[in-house]
Structures are given as structure tokens and as C-alpha cells.
Amino acid sequence: PPTECADVASDKDGVYTIIPKGSSQEISVFCIMRGGNKWTVIQRRINGKEDFYRSWSDYKSGFGTVQTEYWLGNDNVHLISANGDHDLSVYVEDFNGLHAYANYSHFLIGDESTKYLLDITGYVGDAGDGLHDGNGMKFSTKDSDNDINSGNCAHDRHAGWWFRSCDYANLNGRYNDTHGAGNYWYRWRQNTTPLKKSIMMIKKK
């Protein structure tokens, strides 16, 4: 089986089975095929049905429904992103139907021993560099606080994320929350207005 969507023969969007290199476990992923590029979706929000305020173990192994809203799992994202150099594309869409992209030419997260340390560079796009503050940060969840803030950003922002100090992006926040704990991408319009949709997807160069 393919190790990620880049290896899938089909050019149609949909759910595919992969085995990330270094794993023996089959997993289902959603693949987005665009202009010859085959993207592996690692995060998607579209309707707020899935709860993203989850534990370290949930974010480690992944959760949700591949056809709709899910987090692929930090172990899987590590294995895929470590197998060759990867791009990350982040799609954000508001409730008025406006959308934007943040693209990164280098995306890698470490394994669990590094607490899934984020290594991300090479931003280009129109959504703003929302992950700049997350670069070099460990992943945090409500039960594993690895940010530099005196409080617990994952608890305050209702999400697992690469928090520095509760910063400029939180795609896993509470859906449609307008009090700062929502699913937002601050660098787009310099506000924490919640998003209708978000997709994080990676592909091998």
C-alpha cells in the first residue's frame, strides 16, 4: 500500500488506505488531488461536529471521521513528514465563503520523545504566517502543557496545538467560539474570528 497520498495511483479526491513508512499499521486518510499534486490531509474541520478538545493520547493516535472532521494523529504525521521533505498547505475559510491559503515549503514534526516538535519554514500565501510562532515549539494538550506561557494555552484555548504563548493560530479550537478559544487563524485578518472550515495537508516534494 502507499505510504502517503503522493503514492496513490488515482487522481480523485477521497478516502484511501496507507501505511506510513516506519509503521506496520494501515490507516485511512483523505487525499486531495490538485493539479498533479497529491495531498495527505492531516487536519480538517468543516461543521463543528467533532470535539477537538482532546487528550495527549487522542492527538497521538488521531481521532474523528476521515470523510468529515479529523486529526490524523501525531505519530502518523511524524512518520509521514519524516519520510522525505514535505510541503504543508493550510486552507482557511470563513462563514462568508471567503478563503485563503498559508503554504510552507518545509514541514516536519518530531516523534513523541520530542513532544512532536514543530519544524516549519518557507511561508508564502495570502492567509498570513500563522505558524511562525509555533515553529520550534512542542505540541501541547490539556493534559500535557509544553508552551512557554505561565498558564496552559491548550486548556485556555480548548485545543491541542503547537502553542508558544497562546498565539496566532489555533485551528483545533472550539468551533464557532467567539471568545478567543475558537478555531481561528489570527494572521489572516488580525482577529480571532472563528473559521467555518480549515484543512491542513502535506505532500512530499
Automatic annotation (TrEMBL):
Residues 1-205 form the Fibrinogen C-terminal domain. Gene3D superfamilies: Gamma Fibrinogen, chain A, domain 1. PROSITE patterns: FIBRINOGEN_C_1, FIBRINOGEN_C_2. InterPro entries: Fibrinogen-like_C, Fibrinogen_a/b/g_C_1, Fibrinogen_a/b/g_C_dom, Fibrinogen_C-term_domain, Fibrinogen_CS. GO terms for cellular component: extracellular space. This is Fibrinogen C-terminal domain-containing protein. Keywords: Disulfide bond. SUPFAM superfamilies: Fibrinogen C-terminal domain-like.
